[in-house]
Write a structure and sequence with these properties.
- The chain crosses the membrane at residues 52-73.
- There is one protein chain.
- This protein is α+β, with helices and mostly antiparallel strands and 383 residues long.
- 23% of the residues lie in helices and 32% in strands.
- The protein has one domain (3-368).
- The chain has 9 helices and 16 strands.
- Helix 7 (246-260) crosses helix 9 (285-295).
């Protein structure tokens, strides 16, 4: 078996289940967009047990011309606090990002202005670095506790032909979340490994200990990079072709939802799709700003106020609360730095229990001339 084939097979096994053919993309749970779901099992023979997989799901190389003119955040935009901009209602003027926003609409419009004011940057790679967390309930029925499983991923998509796509990642381990969880975990004997099963899947082993960072170069000229959007998978060219007028963008996304058979309420689907457009997709600056302005008019979004993400970065949070199957209320949150217009994190919460159930931190989402890591092992450590 060739090295390239082995790498592609490993990536296929790590692909999020929601992207697999036949997966029902019409139903979207908040945890699906906050953190990668457990890897689906491919056909054929499998190990009896499998480690918790880093769900990277990275596509292959995209056409170079598509990336030209896509912007990012420069250092000046991170430190500036006032900027001229054009608002969604056509007004022009100064946005004061020193004053806390009084509504979700105001926050989104300020973020749109900041993106338009930021200098566009280019680069050899689109680099997306993120940390993902997914909560799991463990322990005996009379004393359950929650653990957070964390993993780090990097995706390096080349702009020019001939450069390899590089996937890097690290399993960061698992640990009790709150002090109460830690006490219940200690009462359970302080286990350092958990095993869970699901119908049609091999048992999955969750280790408390972290594993070394790794990288995998992938080069497959026959495949084009694709990204999940609105229940579909789209190319970078299709992303770049989306309208940069907020109303037209909303119309285009609603048409996509209808085409894909999305059954979630329109406002909720617009919120989680818009959250991806502003946070972790390689889109032009004008489209990112239009996405923020579209979000400003989405019904049901609530300003939650000042918040810090899982790395302690300060921002302002907005949320959308929905009632899912069996009456369970969940809240999808987006944390934004109003001074830069940068989306810092996406989170999902159990409203009744007031518990964080999953998150994605956006650490880097920019075009850069930096090069991917080359001095890392080519696969995660195994025991």
């Amino acid at each position: 078996m060739s090295v390239q084939h082995d790498v592609m097979r490993t990536l296929a096994e790590a692909r999020p289940a929601r992207l697999d053919p036949g997966h029902d993309a019409r139903r979207v749970d908040p945890s699906d967009i906050m953190s990668h779901s457990r890897a689906a099992v491919a056909g054929g023979a499998h190990r009896r047990t499998r480690r918790w997989a880093l769900a990277v799901g990275v596509p292959a190389v995209a056409a170079a011309a598509v990336f030209v003119g896509v912007g990012g955040f420069d250092e000046a935009s991170r430190t500036a606090s006032r900027e001229e901009g054009t608002h969604a209602d056509g007004r022009t003027g100064t946005t004061n990002t020193d004053r806390p926003p009084t509504s979700s609409r105001e926050l989104f419009l300020a973020a749109a202005d900041r993106n338009l004011a930021a200098a566009a940057t280019g680069g050899r790679y689109w680099a997306l670095k993120a940390e993902h967390g997914e909560a799991r309930t463990k322990g005996p029925a009379n004393r359950p506790y929650d653990i957070m499983i964390r993993r780090y991923t990097e995706e390096w998509q080349p702009v020019r032909a001939g450069d390899a796509t590089v996937v890097a990642g690290q399993y960061l381990g698992a640990a009790p979340i709150t002090d109460a969880d830690k006490a219940a975990w200690q009462a359970d004997g302080a286990p350092t490994r958990w095993t869970e099963s699901a119908p049609g899947m091999d048992p999955v082993v969750i280790d408390a200990a972290a594993e070394p960072k790794y990288a995998r170069p992938i080069q497959d000229a026959t495949r084009e990079a694709t990204y999940p959007l609105g229940g579909a998978t789209v190319t970078v060219a299709q992303l770049a072709a989306l309208p940069t007028d907020p109303a037209a963008l909303k119309t285009a996304l609603l048409a996509l939802f209808r085409q894909q058979g999305v059954t979630e309420p329109d406002d909720y689907a617009l919120f989680w799709t818009g959250a991806h457009l502003v946070s972790d997709l390689p889109v032009p600056t004008q489209l990112r700003a239009a996405s923020y302005r579209m979000l400003a008019d989405v019904t049901g979004v609530t300003l939650l106020g000042p918040a810090t993400d899982q790395h302690g970065r300060a921002g302002v949070a907005v949320g959308y609360t929905r009632t899912g199957d069996e009456g369970r209320r969940s809240q999808t949150r987006l944390i934004i730095d109003p001074k830069t217009g940068q989306a810092l994190a996406q989170e999902s919460w159990d409203v009744a229990a007031q518990k964080l159930t999953g998150y994605t931190l956006i650490l880097t989402a920019i075009f850069t001339d930096e090069t991917p890591p080359t001095d890392l092992p080519t696969r995660p450590a195994r025991q």
